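Course assignment 3, question 2. Fill in each field.
Student: A.L.
Task: Predict the tertiary structure for the chain below.
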Amino acid sequence: MCVSGSSPARKVGQTAVHEPYETQQEKQQLKMLNMEDVPPPGTALVEELDKRLLVQLRDGRKLVGILRSFDQFANLVLEKAAERIIVGSLYAEVPLGLYVVRGENVVLLGEIDETKDPPSLLRQVSESEIKQAQKGEAEADKIKSTMKARMNFLNDFD
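Answer field:
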């Protein structure tokens, strides 16, 4: 393995040929080391069972709940699930109960540190207040995109 940080070079005729950072034997050793660190398929979520998790979905929603079960497709069963809606510095949790999440919709998940939940920078509000804040945010985004489109339209005449 090259210690200096650059790949070793050998000259072939007048042209320098750069060799890879590792030899084939070193690559095999690295692969074997990495494969030992990887848990077998289907066991990665075992460590998260019966823990409170935050699950980020593909559509942007965030779910909070206790992981009770999963399968080989990473389908999840969350108990005491709630959708956590965040708008600006406000948040609310909408209770969902027992919830099944299809694995292909999971972007990421992680255990919630109970000492840091709820987030100190966010203020919890009621479900109706957060829905109202979502509508206001959607209207502001719509106005912003309309103004941007108008500005682009004006730029087309230059």
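Instructor remarks: The radius of gyration is 25 Å. DSSP finds two helices and eight strands in the chain.
Grade: pending
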